[in-house]
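Entry type: protein chain
Record version: 2
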Amino acid sequence: MSRERIMVVEDEESIQELIRYNLLREGFLVPVCCENGESALENAVTYKPDLILLDLMLPGMDGLTVCRNLKNDPATRRIPVIMLTAKSEESDIVIGLELGADDYITKPFSPKILTARIHAVLRRIAALAETPADEKELVRGPLHMNAVRRAASLDGHELDLTCSEFNILYHLAKRPGWVFTRSQIVNAVRGDDYPVTERAVDVQIVGLRRKMGGFGELIETVRGIGYRFTQEP
């Protein structure tokens, strides 16, 4: 039985109650529900939930701004976020993922799909925590990564990576020289059949290279296939 704490950020009361009811039925704890972005940021610090369900269409401060603030605050940046959106526009999804959201689901959605996505995100986080000791510290030339602390540095300088950026870089760096297609990258860091476009992966790679500065060339584009990490151990 699940006992993780899920914070719900949704301004429509009927949807909020439906989500809360189904989460409780699945064994999750729901310590608080928020109707706007300001209260979401405050309660995230207060309750430190294990995961946040965040609607993008909120009154006042929108969900993307809330996500950005959550990921910029050291107190909340490691809390996984699943976006809830009535929009199907690719741009909103890509922006949210680039800001550090872990998953998204488009309204209307079934309770079973929602809980399945929650379980998938929580499993990925638990799997990282259980990473074998010899894989917790990953060193590839100037790149140092720690899977448990989710910390990364290049040439001694810490990288400020979103959750998605960290996961992609870690996956590529684990097997230097291997070429991964975009779909393989998505499956590895988010689970099978995750409905993200290839452009979303490209956006994550662009963000990674920008943050890596002169070391961005360590991630090589293999034309027509995907990406690989070029630095050997």
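Comment: The chain has two domains: 6-129, 133-229.
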